[in-house]
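Final report, results section. Input specification for complex C-07:
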Amino acid sequence: MPAITPLLIAQLVIIVVVFHALLLAAAAMVWVERRLAAALQQRLGPIRVGWQGLLQPFADVIKLMFKEELRPKAADALLFGLAPIISATCAFSAFAVVPFGAATTFFGLLSEPMKLQVADVNVAVLVIFGIASMSVYGIVLAGWSSNSKYSLIGGLRSSAQMISYELSYGMALAAVLILGNSLSLTEIVNGQSGYWLGFIPKWFIFIQPLGFLIYLTAGIAETNRAPFDFPEAEQELVAGYHTEYSSMSFAMFFLAEYINMVTVSAVATDLFLGGWYGPFLPESLGWIWFLLKVGALLFFYVWMRWTLPRYRYDQLMAFGWKVLLPLSVLNLLATAAGVLYFGI
Amino acid sequence: MTLFYLFAAVAVIASLLVIAQRNPIYSVLLLIASFGALSGLYVMLDAPFVAVTQIIVYAGAIMVLFLFVVMLLHAPAEETEHDEKIHPLRRAGPMRFGAALAAALVVELLWALTRAGGETGPFPGAAVSSVRAIGRALFTEYAFQFEVTSILILVAMVGAVVLAKREAAKS
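Structure output:
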């Protein structure tokens, strides 16, 4: 048993805070998504429940809780129940290794500074990649165990899509790892402190614009968001892999999708946008910058969804293998050469 | 030590169940569980990089392909009792050969287990826990083996493409 120290308590507090912040972020994203969609389509969206409809997500959750939990007769009971749990667990656990602020003593409350992060793993980037590659099982199993053709097609599409885009995703990550010279997200963020010429922040997005675009595109495909939302393309597949789900198990898929968005944005912020570094604020308040950057990326996500129509499935595959993958390999080679010969 | 036995038990039981039940989807999932337990053992050996690689490569990439193929074939209850009886591997010859192989495996395992030292716990030195050290070793000391392996994989890839092309040309 480790002794109960202030550091341990602070760590526990961080775990609880991160968990609930993710839940709240998912709720907030539902509201943002619906209001933004409404604004883009010149409607009002939810405005009745609470001020400006802010309590709408909570009303939705309560409604979902009281819905009947349905399971098709021919479904595989065990896997049908397991699939949403896998999805939600993977979504939550990926965020555990994401740092969201500089080490702080909480205004002198702690004797030694503590990292704002659930777990500081020295192979953090790989852990995120590994969990992302595991999260596909939730969707694939949901599709298979429902024993319905729409669900199955959704699950198959999802696995093919994730395999295809994972490669480019990994290559884009690898280029940043070369620049950051580390696998630890904290060290990569610390490598982005300071300014060029006194005013351009040393964020990797300025060295890696192509890598950033590849990461964002592959990230959208990995989280199954429009314009790459093939696993649930409602015009063709009813609702894709979660067609047969209702009540809270449906809500868990929903939750997983939004938390995955938050995680992809948070990782993009740490890798490309300088994490918690920014002007004006002292380093102890850097998490505000972090939240702002993540928020901007999430806004971009929603904006994309309601602006671009869905691709065709063959276009998705052709784009992933013939455009994105070669580009990401080129990007990786160019970055490696740049670091080796010019010492960027 | 408790953790070691937990992971080891999960790995062994899951691996046994992979071959002990009929539904191929469950076999794939149990194999993933077994890989997960193995990766837990790697973490305990102070080799997080190997653990994560195990998850990414085996559980994440290869098993997704397995699952993909099993789902595409969509044959969960294909092997009925009758199918099993007329299965070519059920004949006397293959079964004797299999028994001989199993016996050889048991002997080998016993030999390896009795020779192994009683050492547990982290690997001496930080060699396996540092990604830098692994990379350096791979590209200097083991560069030849590394390149040979990559050529082997490339050949397999080219072979897969050729086979797929031939199928497409026929149809």
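Helices of chain B lie at 2-20, 24-44, 48-73, 81-86, 92-115, 131-139, 143-170. The CA atoms of residues 57 and 63 of chain B lie 9 Å apart. This concludes the modelling results for the funded period.
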